[in-house]
Amino acid sequence: MRVPALSGVTALLTAALIPAVLIPAVLIPATALPTDAVLGPPTAEFDLTVADAAGTPLRGALLTCPDGLGNHPHGEETCAVLESVGGDLDRLPGALHSCARGHAPVTATATGVRQGVPVWWSRTFANACEMDARTGPVFRFWD
């Protein structure tokens, strides 16, 4: 089937109207979306574990931020602390308190993704009390 060519006036009107109709149709839905829809997936998802000196896992928790979802008993507080340090676990303010000098090493490990960037962090502490004093609520799953 042959399509007839557009006349000069019709072609000009069509060329002028197509952008006027299509541009708002493309822009309006994007600007009308609620903020949550634009943000997409969670900002961070972590698998947090504590293991003994032999590497045997003692306990663990899953955490999704910013809402503190998962099975971490201090999820919201932990997400807030992690956000305050930009996800850098080396900058955690800790929960300053004194600890006995007992030697029962534990290794705390955090793996996951924060704002699309893979996270892997692991530190060994002299005991669980020292770990808590250095990491605050992040590895506090036993309450």
Automatic annotation (TrEMBL):
<dbReference type="GO" id="GO:0005576">
    <property type="term" value="C:extracellular region"/>
</dbReference>
<dbReference type="InterPro" id="IPR036819">
    <property type="entry name" value="Subtilisin_inhibitor-like_sf"/>
</dbReference>
<protein>
    <recommendedName>
        <fullName>Subtilisin inhibitor domain-containing protein</fullName>
    </recommendedName>
</protein>
<dbReference type="InterPro" id="IPR023549">
    <property type="entry name" value="Subtilisin_inhibitor"/>
</dbReference>
<comment type="similarity">
    <text>Belongs to the protease inhibitor I16 (SSI) family.</text>
</comment>
<keyword id="KW-0964">Secreted</keyword>
<keyword id="KW-0646">Protease inhibitor</keyword>
<feature type="domain" description="Subtilisin inhibitor">
    <location>
        <begin position="48"/>
        <end position="127"/>
    </location>
</feature>
<keyword id="KW-0722">Serine protease inhibitor</keyword>
<dbReference type="InterPro" id="IPR000691">
    <property type="entry name" value="Prot_inh_I16_SSI"/>
</dbReference>
<dbReference type="Pfam" id="PF00720">
    <property type="entry name" value="SSI"/>
</dbReference>
<keyword id="KW-1015">Disulfide bond</keyword>
<comment type="subunit">
    <text>Homodimer.</text>
</comment>
<dbReference type="GO" id="GO:0004867">
    <property type="term" value="F:serine-type endopeptidase inhibitor activity"/>
</dbReference>
